[in-house]
Design a protein that fits this description.
alpha+beta; Rossmann fold; 3 domains; about 25% helix; 7-stranded mixed beta sheet; globular; 9 helices
């Protein structure tokens, strides 16, 4: 015998009517769907972004409007520029300078925190918060609740809310949950050097790089350390930095060259911030590493920011995609003034190689 509830019928947004039992659940979901927020605009990450107005007020972990409260997922990111890069480097240095304590009360979400009162100069804590507000990302983490996050050198830092009177900043390891290279890292070197022609190609590329003992090097996507394998005698570990998002690949690198282990950082280029003012003579991203970046503009801009005057960058794309070629050719075009005289020199130039499997672009900073 079917169980039914009493009472008058209840209307749902689809025009239907329902009574107790299963119909009560149906009514609940009808109400839930009808009260979901509607958004305008789309963020760069593909999440819905609401259109903000002066009547919107940030309050706690929700966003309030002049009329009523409604949940709204947000995702924002700064417009990248050399000034923003400078701010990020200064902020990373501030955050890394201080000690952190493990949050024992939240074992399900392992992270650490630093307290404002433990900073020798509390004004520096406020300065860190101000810089975070300028460059952080604002992301939803649960049904309209949001937090502010800044990624730096393998860690993520965040606060809950926008105000500047916070007493703590949280920190946790920031790394992909799945490392696709972990399964192949032990045999990676053999896999990419199956034949003599593969070894010769690597030797040709690495030996073409102008490296001296005093050369400051940033190796983007350093992997298992093949650059160091081929140019070991020319590279000073204290003047080398290797970054890669794969723990497995960096582990192999460190096992092969223990003296370089402290110079390796598990982070993608987007989240790498050197000490303020630290620049490099040579920045390389070789053998397809740049192809992992979705936006060549960010890669190009950050690489130029990382170079010293007179420094050189070498990028090798996997394949010769027309969109990549067009992007760098456009950047390489000299800008001319009203009198027709070039006002700045080209940065990127395409280097033609016999190997058509790669698009190689080289940049030199005046």
């Amino acid at each position: 015998m079917r169980r039914t509830g009493g009472g008058s019928p209840t209307s749902c947004p689809d025009g239907g009517q329902s009574r107790g039992g299963w119909d009560s659940w149906r009514r609940f979901f009808c109400v839930l769907i009808s009260t979901r927020p509607r958004f305008n605009g789309v963020s760069r990450s593909g999440f819905d972004r609401p259109s903000m107005s002066s009547s919107d007020v940030v309050q706690g972990s929700r966003i309030m409007t002049g009329e009523n409260e409604r949940f709204r997922p947000i995702e924002t990111a700064p417009e990248w520029s050399h000034e923003v890069f400078d701010t990020c480097a200064e902020l990373a240095e501030l955050l890394e300078r201080h000690s952190y304590r493990f949050a024992r009360t939240m074992p399900g979400a392992p992270h650490s925190y630093t307290l404002k009162r433990t900073w020798p100069v509390e004004d520096e804590f406020v300065e860190a918060l101000r810089k975070m507000r300028a460059v952080e990302r604002i992301e939803e983490f649960f049904r309209g609740f949001w937090y502010r996050r800044f990624n730096a050198n393998g860690y993520k830092y965040w606060t809950m809310g926008a105000n500047l009177d916070h007493i703590l900043i949280n920190r946790a390891i920031h790394a992909p949950a799945f490392d696709p290279y972990a399964a192949v890292c032990d045999t990676y070197d053999l896999a990419i050097h199956e034949g003599e022609s593969d070894v010769e190609r690597s030797r040709r590329v690495y030996e073409s790089l102008k490296i001296e003992p005093r050369t400051e090097i940033l190796d983007i996507g350093c992997g298992t350390g093949t650059l160091v394998d081929f140019r070991f005698r020319d590279i000073d570990p204290e003047r080398y930095v290797g970054i890669d998002p794969s723990r497995g690949m960096l582990g192999v690198f460190g096992d092969k060259h223990p003296e370089f282990r402290d110079r390796l950082i598990r982070t993608p280029l987007e989240d790498y911030w050197p000490k303020p003012g630290q620049k490099f003579d040579l920045v390389v991203a070789l053998f397809g590493v740049p192809s992992h970046f979705g936006e060549p503009g960010l890669l190009s801009g950050k690489v130029q920011w990382l170079l010293k005057p007179g420094g050189t960058a070498v990028l090798m794309y996997n394949g010769r995609k027309p969109e990549d070629i067009d992007f760098y050719r456009q950047l390489g075009t000299k800008v001319r003034g009203s009198d027709g005289v070039p006002v700045n020199d080209e940065f990127w130039t395409e280097r033609q190689d016999d190997d058509t499997d790669w698009l190689t672009v080289v940049g030199s900073k005046p």
